[in-house]
Structures are given as C-alpha cells and as structure tokens.
Amino acid sequence: MKIEQPWWAAAALLAGCGDDEEHTAAEKTDVVIVGSGASGSLLAAKLAQAGKRVVILEAGPELTLDDLYSSQIWSRRLRWAGPFSESSGEYPIALNFNQGWGTGGAALHHYAVWLRLHAEDFAVKTRFGRGLDWPIGYDDLRPFYDAVQAEVGLSGDAAAEVWRPPGAPYPMPPLVVFNQARIVERGFAKLGLRTSPLPLAINSVGFKGRPPCIYDGWCDAGCPIGALVNPLVVHLPEARAAGAEIRHRSFVTRVLTDAAGRRATGVEYYDAAGQRRVQSAAVVILAAFAVQNPRILLNSAATTHPNGLANSSGLVGKYVTAHLSTNVFGLFSEETQNYLGVTGGQLLSQERYSKDPANGYLGSSQFVIGNALKPTDLLGIAGGRPEIFGDDLHSFLRTASRHLATMTVFGENLPARQNEVVLSQRRDAYGLRLARVVHSYGGDDLACFDAAVAQGRQIFQAAGAYEVWDAGRHNAHMLGGTIMGASPDSSVTNGYGQTHDIANLFVAGPGLFPTSGAVNPTFTIYALALRTAEHLLGQWSSLT
Description:
CATH superfamily: FAD/NAD(P)-binding domain
Radius of gyration: 23 Å
Largest sheet: 7 strands, mixed
Distance between the termini: 31 Å
Strand content: 15-25%
Number of domains: 1
C-alpha cells in the first residue's frame, strides 16, 4: 500500500468523485471479501467450494508459514501496520495489539483459546434488564460450534469443563499441563474452586496432516509448524484450491452502490502501486477488523446514504466493547517451568462466570491459567514489573525466569452506545478519514473485574506464592461496532451478518457481537462465519 504521498494530494483527486468516477475495474466476481482473517478465510473457502467466484482483498502483505519466526521483535510485524486509528475515552482500547497485518489477519497471531459463549450471554437484556440481546441464542449457534471444532481440530476435555454449554466432545485430548499451571491449580483447590484443561485450537496429537504442538511457547509470533489453527493452514489453502483469489496490499476504502443506493455493486480499493481500482461483485462481505468495518461503512457515505452505508439505524460504529484484562503474577519457591506450554494458557476456571446481580454488579469473568512466558516484550517476564530498572531488574529476571507463574483475568464489558467508532478529522494517504475509537468501562464492568482480580490474588497466595501482584487494568479484544439484532432500528445486521439496509452486503467478525461475555471471541467468530456461509449459499438466488 502506498502511503508516502501526502493525504491532501489524494484528497484533491477524490474530491467530488462519485461512483461513476474513472477507475480501473476488474471483471465482476460473485463475492468480494474484505480481509483474510478468521471469518474472511472461512467464508472464502466455503463459498469457493460451492462454486462461487471469490476475490479476497487483504490490506497487508503476503505471508507464509516461512515468514513466522520465533522472535518477539519479528512477531510485531504481524500486528497492524496500516493507517493509524485514534483511541480515546477514559479507558482507551489498545488497537494495534488486537489487529493483524497481512495474510490471515489477527488470526495469524492469536492464542487459540477457543471458548463458547454461554447461553446467558445471548440474552442479557431479556434475563437481566441490562445491555442488549442477540437475535440468536446459544442453541442456534451450537451446531456451528460443533461443526467448526470437528473441521479444524480442538484439544480439551468437555467433561472436565463443567461450565461449558452443551455440545460435542472435543476431537482431541487436552494439551500437556506443566508445573506452572499445576502450582497455581493448588490455590484453586484450596479455595474450593474447580479448574479444567483449557480448550485450545492447537493440536495435542496429529490432526488432518498437521503436527502436534511442541510446547515452546511462541504462539504470539505465529505457529510455523501449523499445529495452531490459523488461516494459512486451514481455510486459505482450501479457498485457493477451490479457485478463490487473494490480492495483497489492496486497501479497501469504500463500498460502492447502485444509483438508488439499494444494492452494493462492489468496493473501491487502492493497490500496492497506489492506484485506485474497483472490484465489482454480486455480494460484498466486510470481514476486516472491528475498527475497519465501521470505518469503511462510514466513509461510504453518498447522496443516497449521507450518514454512511447500512446506517439507517445510526448504529454503525456504536456499542463497541472490549474485555477488561490483566495478569496476576506470583513468585514461588519451586521452579515453575514458565517457558513451557502455549501463550494462551493451560488451565481454565469459569467459577465466576454466571451473571448474578446479587453480587452487586452484573458481569462475567474467567481465569486462564499458566501462560507460557518469554523474558521481555509486552507479555514477557520483564513486562510483569515495568517499574523495575537496572540491577533490580536483572535480579528479578534471574529469579522470575525460573520461579514466576501467571494467569490472565478476563472481565465482561456491558454494551454502551457512547462507546463507538467515529470518523476522525484526520485522513489517510488516500484522503479518507481515519477512525477514532471512543471507549470507557461502566461501574458494573469495573466492579466485576476488580472482584475477580482480588480473588486471583487470593488464589496465588493460597497456592503458596511468597510475592503476589497484578498488572492493573488493561484490555483485550475488540467487539461490536456493527452489531447484529432483530430490528433494523436497533442494529446494523440480522443474525446472519446481513445488513438490514442492503441485502447483498454482509459483515463478519467480532463487530457483530451485541454483548461481549467474558470469553475469548475467536471460536464464536468462526461459528458465526460458518452460519453466514450456509445462509448465504441457501439464499443465493434471492440475493443476486
């Protein structure tokens, strides 16, 4: 993507241009998908296998498994390197860490913690009079959770995972649990709290030609052996084999519509040379990150839709949520082997998951136990004590590299309309307005999370840690902004990700979530995408 030209030069070229502007147009395809991440790659595979002509437009560079190196510095290349997004509010969202850059998007560096939302997460408004409802329930999504895990492979123990909603057993046994998680597990047991193996989209044994995990803890930098589920080893090869085309360094700026503004006709994008191009399509699917999809829709404003595309409800960009997150740390006398395992963790406890207003707050939380650690960088050992420098840091690292244990706390973020993606007054290299994310947490969110962190510290003390601390309030994941719902007045899409306003325009990914729950979102992203693919194929004639 060409970004060195000043934005005002491109803006001058674009000023006053409509959908009939001169451009370089490609041959019309059946489906154009924006983004090659989790949802985009699955949709591309299923639609191409059904005989549809599919073009994927990926903003970042082409990556292969050979581009994945076990290096904390190199892993940063997998994070977003496109146009800057502003982040503001009392509790801003850390956008760069959540996003991906290149083939596979964020799913290339995700930690493979695949958990199902609980039934109550789909009906928070109905059950508790707060938040929002999904237009679907757990039972609607259950068969797609089951189908996805059977297709791509999931390791875990469904019987031990006593909090899990009903569903098929995992196709592989759990991964190995090392000292770090076993030591922390003692604290749970002493307090009468249950744990289970953490369900992970990582092979514990060979699965469909992909090797098992080697437990070297480099998931954060991508998995070059293919033991961890990511688009490079599952759905993108399937999509390409079925004839789908992926174009890299193709930055989509707008969705184009017909003269009446009732149907999407394709997308505008800029190629690696900075040339404006148009890809016409019968169906358009926005499967970019949860910031970029609203930005594209809002920047697609035209005479027929002056407030942005698919925005008759005024809710494009609204109801952004993010999980509150932190790590609890402890030092133990015995060696923890914290370098072994996987980045996502080894054990799970959802004893605090059920929402109960009697607690004095509404919200869910969970503990993910035993994350594999490296010496430095964002998730590293040194990052656990950022206030220490010099000789004190050297001493701490010598001790912590052999005796530190950690677990991650996740807390729910109830949806609030004022948490939003809006357009900034600043513009990118092509004259398009950048995104600005405004985000804060409510009182329930903070109370729920703080209670979980306090219990997490108690667990470490009960486990025998001689020093315990936590990293303070942070955030993980970004959801919402293009929420699904039952009514065009209160949501952007229906339960299939189909926009209410434009029948042949779909949205995929975490932006569809009306509520966040407290679980990592990737498994639900895949399940929703599979459900969308099935619906789209079943309704193809009416959509096109």
